[in-house]
Specification:
The chain is mainly α. The protein has 2 domains: 311 residues, no CATH class; 81 residues, no CATH class. Helix 17 packs across helix 23. The C terminus is likely disordered.
């Protein structure tokens, strides 16, 4: 079997939940990303990156193109990682992809039409550039920089994760040129965000309205709610009218129709309330950080710890909001056969959730089993392997900190990247020269 055939077959294995479902997996936010090219529309709370990325592969014909591309991209990165370590073999690659598909959350993110899978894609691109540069061709280096830049820019939570990869590069004393290679996807992603925000929002900013999300987190944790209560009504903020009765859940604060963000004290609905609140949110967030820095830090670390321990597939398997948020976009921009495929999918009912629960119990066991192998690899491995393993562990920790502390604890946030630990454990296992695995 050739390398290309193994990578393609591995990509199919890595989106097996889509075949089980009968259609690519979807989340309520998938509709917003489809709207970026179907309408087209610059969504205020989402970078204009993943929508065009998905469009490259679906072309308003079928979402199967996006799901298949995501699986093949991840399969290719895993192949490159194995090749850098001198252990790439078609048979071994297929066995690894099958094991990851069965024992980790990877395929449930790869099959999902969301930027979730691009978080580990960005990490693997940076890791390969930093620790595998010499083993890559010039074309592969360029591909990883471009891919990593798009993946980094696809979601704002990816930025701190990619910045955190500088830590293992410095700890392992990589040369400055290699440290810059690790940061190349981050730099490219930031430039892409600046360019798209200038074009779409007329502002030079990485996140023109991101302060609303941070305010929601700080209100839910308490410090911002206390700031509003202490400074109102003298501050004259819009939220002063809601002091003492703000929602204690960040998602409710941002999205509920009757939230202060989306409805005035008189009961009048506010269109794009989160975007309109952003200027005031920046002021309240800054004052909260000044008033209660330790409380903010304590709450953030607590949320990060809970996020680290929360990695599952349950919150993306049902039909919640899909008929309202996603189906209209498919009907608007895709052939009738796509609507029929969406309607016939297991995800429309309870079938996909039941299938997910049947295998989900295995995922935490695989994660726990990977930890001693990671430690063994760190102890016995050479400098390159140790650097790779450290980078993967740092990425998983940084993802928990970025999503838990800055947004909120949701299972899919950690599920998208937790599988890097079992992948690292496989890298730590001594190479076996089996003729079967050499393909």
């Amino acid at each position: 079997m050739s390398a290309c055939a193994a990578i393609l077959a591995g990509g199919l294995l890595l989106i097996c939940p889509a075949f089980l479902n009968g259609y690519p997996l979807l989340f309520s936010d998938s509709g917003a990303f489809l709207a970026q090219t179907v309408v087209p529309l610059m969504i205020w709370d989402k970078p204009w990156v993943y929508g065009p990325f998905a469009w490259l592969f679906h072309q308003h014909l079928s979402l199967w193109g996006t799901s298949l591309a995501q699986g093949v991209i991840v399969s290719h990165l895993i192949w490159l990682l194995a090749r850098v370590l001198g252990r790439a073999a078609p048979g071994g690659h297929l066995l690894l992809c099958a094991a990851l598909a069965l024992g980790t959350t990877l395929p449930w993110s790869a099959a999902l039409v969301m930027p979730d899978i691009l978080a580990p894609v960005a990490v693997l691109a940076a890791v390969l550039l930093g620790w595998g540069w010499a083993a890559l061709s010039p074309g592969e280096r360029l591909w990883l920089i471009l891919l990593g830049s798009v993946a980094t820019a696809s979601h704002l939570s990816h930025l701190p994760v990619m910045l955190a990869l500088l830590l293992p590069a410095l700890v392992m004393r990589l040369r400055w040129a290699r440290c810059l290679a690790v940061l190349a996807p981050l730099a490219g992603g930031m430039l892409l965000l600046l360019a798209t925000n200038i074009a779409g929002h007329g502002r030079i900013a990485l996140s023109p309205h991101g302060s609303s999300f941070l305010l929601a987190r700080l209100v839910a944790d308490g410090p911002a709610a206390r700031t509003i209560a202490a400074r109102c009504p003298e501050a004259g903020w819009y939220l002063c009218d809601f002091a003492g009765r703000l929602p204690e859940d960040a998602d409710v604060f941002l999205w509920a129709p009757d939230s202060p963000v989306n409805r005035t004290p008189e009961g009048i609905p506010i269109f794009l309330g989160g975007m309109l609140l952003a200027p005031e949110a920046r002021i309240i967030v800054a004052e909260t950080l000044w008033r209660e820095p330790l409380s903010v830090l304590q709450a953030g670390l607590g949320n990060a710890w809970r996020q680290l321990l929360t990695a599952g597939i349950g919150d993306t398997l049902g039909n919640r909001h899909l008929d309202v948020a996603v189906r209209p976009r498919i009907a608007q921009g895709f052939p009738p056969s796509e609507v029929a495929g969406f309607d016939a999918a297991l995800q429309r009912g309870a079938g996909l959730a039941q299938a997910g629960r049947a295998i989900a119990w295995l995922h935490p066991l695989v994660l726990l089993a990977s930890l001693p192998l990671l430690a063994w690899g760190w102890w016995r491995g050479d400098a390159r392997l140790r650097g790779l393993l450290l980078a993967l562990v740092v990425a998983v920790l940084a993802n928990a900190l970025a999503t838990g502390a800055l947004s909120g604890v949701h299972a899919r946030y950690q599920a998208r990247i937790a599988w890097l630990l079992p992948l690292g454990a496989w890298l730590a296992v001594p190479r076996r020269r089996s003729p079967l695995l050499r393909g």
